[in-house]
Amino acid sequence: MGVMAYPLRYALADLALALSRVSHDPAAVQSTAARAAADMIGDGAGVQLLRDDGRYDSITYHHIDDERSGSMARVLDHVDQLPDDDFSTALAASRRPIVLAGDGVEPLAGEEHEIHSAVLCPVIVDNTYAGYLVLTREAPGSFYSTAEVELARDIAGELALACSSARALERLRASEERYRRVLETIPEGVLQLDPDAVVTYANEPIGVVLGMPRSQLVGVSLRGFLNDQGQKELNRRINECREGRSTVGGTRLMRADGSQRSVRISMMPLMGDHGEFTGVVCMVTDTTDHIDARGLKRQLDHLRRLDSLGQLIGGISHDFNNLLTVVGGSAEMISSSSDADSQHHRLAEDILEAVGTGRSLTHQLLAFGRSDGNRPEIIPIPDLLTDVQSLFSRTLGEHIGLDLAFGPDVWAVKAERGPLEQALVNLAANARDAMLHGGMLRVAAMNEVVEAGKGPEGVPPGRLVHIVITDTGVGMTDEVRQRALEPFFTTRPTAAGLGLATTAGIVQGIGGHIELESEPRMGTTVHLYLPAAEEKTASVAGRQGAPAVIGRVMIVEDQPEVAQLVQRLIEPAGYAITVATDVLQAVSLVAAGAHPDLLITDVVMPTMTGPELAAALRTHRPDLPVLYMSGYTAASLGPQLHLDDNSMLIEKPFTRSTLLGAIRTLAGTQPSNEGATAK
């Protein structure tokens, strides 16, 4: 074998070259090594390596007689077995070849296969047992010489080197794939630029930011997406990177479609093998939505302040109505007890007139207070427009004229009064802002009947009240008009962009439709189409079960001065009156045997609401009539107040005649003065 050693050295070099060429393919590596071992040493050779799960993979076996390759492979294969047999443990421990001859071969192949000698060489990859190379001969008396065993060991060594290279390549491929996947899946855009800011790599997200497929970005200069200022900034930053420094900053990028995005760019230098500057890698984060979100947060804070202001207005209006009730009631009593031509009478009448103005102001304020009411009422449009006329005038100011045009026969609508008033005032406010140098606002209302499918798009069919609000302001472009009803859309930096959106929501909430008509410098016309209320076919004949004469009245009001005023207003009419300024006191009085014919109670009180008190007293007197009084409007009270056929609401401030009229309507005729005794 010494004569063969020199040529075999070349054979081993050829094997190493062949293995390096197929190092990317593990199956080809094993097949090349098995074939080389069979050809160089004979008769058959196989490679049995461990898988990643620690068990043997299928054997790769080659015999110089191809017909024997398959059957021999089946005999020798340890696929799916753990390396815990005697041969494997010895190879892993000693890392030296095992040479078998004669009877010693039997554990490897069994008696029925005529293998007379064999060599097992361990394959050590990265200092770890990875399997073995097996050589077999079938000729009786055959054996492997020391030189052949050494050659087998060299072949196993070349195989180990090839496996190590294959594993390293696989790790490199996996690492590159992970890196590529990171670049493709991170939400940030990634750009690689050469020293002249030309794109050499772009991931998918940056293509989305710039509005171009990333395949088209390679070879394009980033300068094309920047304005003059942005280009100067880019040059400065690339120079910083050229000096080895990273840089971070914000800029505006112009997309391919002409729109702009706000971005934050982090730039890091790229260096070549010899430390030369080769370009920069950029991480690009789109901050447009973040900046928009900050604007939305400001608008949301504004909304919250408006909501708090609404609650504050509601509370102040309620308390103010209580004060007005006392002032108005006292003035009315002074007026009724003094001569018509006396100064006291005239002063009392002036006070009453002022109370009336205050009442209308607080009710208008309550329309803007918080209302979760969903308590629609029948609203005659002429009444509504007359009531909001003063609000319109205050909203518009002195430099804008107001023209209201409607007939007395305009139909009523069914809606919550407060929100509907708010919707109209919102429109007046928008018109005012469009007429900064003065102008005219015209409001007209008319009846219309729209047949199904024949009206303007979006307008519901049926009987409608058509309200037209026209201003002589700056008007709107088509683009602005189409977005004008969107929440938060505004052309004024100081506005929340909610006026028209709120109006649209209120109108649509009652089944109506809003439409805008506008041209720049030609003013704006808003069309409101509101479903008319159903006409009543019959009037209510009167309340059932009300007593013919009522004598005993219980007044429950947590404000003592209001309770005292109500007592003074109705006492001269002959009623026997019990006053309670505490709800629990009222319940105790009835439980102890008091039998009021009428309960007059505030709605919002500590401990228990008026409706809860009424329900408690009606367990003793099921048919007890209840007259509620409140500084809030019915719509503002919402679900707190449910009026049945045996209850009514009067809103503070009220007059003596309003109060007595409500009592008569609710509870029948009043007693004569002589028949009443106070309790």
From TrEMBL:
Residues 552-667 form the Response regulatory domain. Its EC number is 2.7.13.3. It is an enzyme of class 2 (transferase). CDD domains: HisKA, PAS. It catalyses: ATP + protein L-histidine = ADP + protein N-phospho-L-histidine. Residues 247-299 form the PAC domain. The modification 4-aspartylphosphate is found at D602. Pfam families: GAF (PF01590), HATPase_c (PF02518), HisKA (PF00512), PAS (PF00989), Response_reg (PF00072). Residues 175-245 form the PAS domain. It comes from the Bacteria. It is found in: Cell membrane. Keywords: ATP-binding, Kinase, Nucleotide-binding, Phosphoprotein, Transferase, Two-component regulatory system. Residues 315-534 form the Histidine kinase domain. SUPFAM superfamilies: ATPase domain of HSP90 chaperone/DNA topoisomerase II/histidine kinase, CheY-like, GAF domain-like, Homodimeric domain of signal transducing histidine kinase, PYP-like sensor domain (PAS domain). NCBIfam families: sensory_box. PANTHER family: C4-DICARBOXYLATE TRANSPORT SENSOR PROTEIN DCTB (PTHR43065:SF46), SENSOR HISTIDINE KINASE (PTHR43065). This is histidine kinase.
